[in-house]
Specification:
about 35% helix, Hypothetical Protein Tm841, Chain: A,domain 3, 10 helices, Rossmann fold, 6-stranded mixed sheet
Length: about 290
């Protein structure tokens, strides 16, 4: 084996809750293990059988709340074996274990094959893909295995994601948030801002109107970064058009060293729980 990890000798495996931009998995060295979405007796592989646009069209037109299920350890093992045939190392980066059992299935599979490094990134949606994208940037420069692991661990501990949900109804119906919080979120056009703390989605602020939502986002930036910090960030949309661009402009206006990476799209599994009309951003200070 070579001493340095590079894009040529290191693969990255993700589950489908990572919500990347279109075409992201077409790049060499990236492998997708999809979760599954069930509409009644119909089953779809997230990110494979149904695009995010098709999912939200179906969600809006259905009286049935879809359910989701995680991949099996066998599905992860098959993906790891395929990746190890071509790559010396595999990093497998996943949704918080507080939200899904996906990472536990990945860990079980990794016990059967060497040089597979599984991480619970303790976050969700495009914050996961952003972590992989930043790891790829380090691999492009060449880094040791210890340095790659240290970066992933720092990203896990220091990355941030803030979600401006149109409603808490889907989180409530999916059992991800309490009924009382859902009720408050629907009163007088008050909409929640949600962040991830210790791997769990929790309320950050409840705001009325777009102006106050963006003021809360600015406050969140001030709490987690300094004006001269170099920030890598992505915006995230769940079937919403204008707000992600407005979030990008907000971040770049108050953080001159902010580096916009791309816009991710919430797909079926995460979309089942947060619903349409949601916008968000994820960031890491480096």
């Amino acid at each position: 084996m070579t001493d340095l990890l590079t894009l040529e000798n290191t693969a990255i495996v993700m589950d489908s809750t990572c919500d990347p931009p279109d075409g992201w998995f077409d790049q060499p060295g990236l492998y997708l293990v999809p979760l599954k979405v069930h509409f009644g007796d119909q089953m779809f592989r997230d990110g494979v059988d149904m695009t995010y646009k098709e999912f939200f069209a179906k969600l809006r037109g259905s009286d049935i709340l879809p359910t989701t299920s995680q991949p099996t350890a066998g599905e992860f093992l098959a993906t790891y074996q395929a990746a190890r045939e071509r790559y010396e190392h595999v990093f497998s980066l996943h949704i918080s274990g507080e939200m899904s059992g996906t990472v536990r299935a990945a860990q079980q599979a990794a016990e059967e094959i060497d040089n597979v490094h599984v991480y619970d990134l303790r976050t969700v949606t495009s914050a996961l893909a952003l972590g992989a994208e930043r790891l790829r940037a380090h691999l492009a420069d060449g880094c040791t295995l210890d340095a790659a692991k240290a970066y992933v661990e720092r990203y896990r501990d220091e990355s941030r994601v803030l979600i401006h949900a149109a409603t808490l109804e889907y989180l409530r119906r999916g059992g991800r948030i309490g009924l009382a919080a859902s009720f408050v979120g629907g009163v007088f056009d008050i909409k929640p801002l949600i962040h991830v703390v210790d791997g769990t989605m929790t309320g950050y602020a409840k705001v009325r109107g777009q102006k106050k939502a963006f003021a809360a986002m600015r406050r969140y930036l001030d709490e987690h970064s300094r004006p001269d910090d170099h920030i890598w960030f992505c915006t995230i949309d769940a079937d919403t058009d204008d707000e992600p661009q407005q979030i990008r402009e907000l971040i770049q206006s108050c953080r001159p060293n902010a580096h916009f990476v791309w816009q991710g799209h919430v797909a079926a599994v995460v979309g089942t729980h947060i619903g349409p009309g949601t916008a968000a951003f994820a960031m890491i200070v480096e």
